Amino acid sequence: MPAFLHHLTTRVPAHACSQEETRDRLKTWTPDRRQQRLIHALYARSGIDRRHSVLPDFNQDPQLFQTNADGQLQPPGTAARNTVYAREAPTLAVDLVRDLLSSAETHGTPRSRITHLIFASCTGFTNPGPDYQIIRQLGLSPSVQRYTLGFMGCYAAFPALRMAAQFCQADPSATVLVVCLELCTLHMQLDPRPDTLLANSLFADGAAACLVTAEKPTTPGFELHHFATTLVPGSESEMAWDIGDHGFNLVLSSYVPDILGAQIAPLLATAADHAGWPLDSLTHWAVHPGGRAILDRVSAALHLPPDALAASRHILRHFGNMSSPTILFVLQEMLRHPVTHADPRTCALAFGPGLTVETAFLKNLAA
Hints:
Elements: E1 3-11, E2 15-18, H1 19-28, H2 33-44, E3 50-53, E4 66-67, E5 73-74, H3 78-106, E6 116-121, H4 130-137, E7 145-150, H5 157-170, E8 175-183, H6 194-200, E9 205-213, E10 221-231, E11 239-244, E12 247-252, H7 256-275, E13 284-287, H8 292-302, H9 310-319, H10 326-335, E14 345-352, E15 356-364
């Protein structure tokens, strides 16, 4: 029995900053000319024009990035960063789901039908959290079953969608609300290591939500055909994510694009065979825009047409890497364009710590 993704909704915080503005601000935070040149080069190659944050300015929030008596910025502690998450994440989540419910109810799906809520986030912790506030503030039934998927990183939307599909297959009357929300900018590090500077140039804040049901929707969406997960051999140390005294520490090796480029074709061929959709039958591609280099290497490794990753590049350019919601932004962008293929088969990919590769095979219902 298939499950369907529909009423896909996205939202970003109100505060936006151009990549040039962020670059120039970071360059003033270090007196080292070599680091300044590296920052300039990383931002120039990022493929990003603009990113959003819950912070209007990194040194305007009284809890973050304070200046000491010598005029040097001090990195905030983990508790201070998480306090901002606890303040901002519920508001963003409630506003996002309010938009989704408005669309769903207009098309005949009342909020009373929602039976499950899956919330995915890796950039903060608070309980009662955003999932609780969604139930309370938006009038969902208190009997809605709630699940939190935490600390998975950029690929978390796929386990969330897979879980939602399994709920619907077990109970065809289920209506599952999936929410992915990340406030990545809270964890910017004042650290001269190249990996840290690379991460600072990519990550942004955003949220996305959708409904998953066993009933085929009358609005644009996707049929969830098959999911696959695998680990890239010998790559465990190249991307990692842990909690330190001064925020969450991300290890993001500059070798990740090369590793993915070398491994993605055989890994994906195996997943496609298990899905019953050979690689040459796939017509559309939704690749998590972890960075421009990742998109370039994946495109080259899979011999994709020049415009195959247009949706991924569009989202990277206008929003940056928002971690788990990002692939849902890409899918929403794809739904905005008419599909002319008689059998539109989409392969969606995301990558995260491990390296973990998550794959979803979807059929675009907008055809």
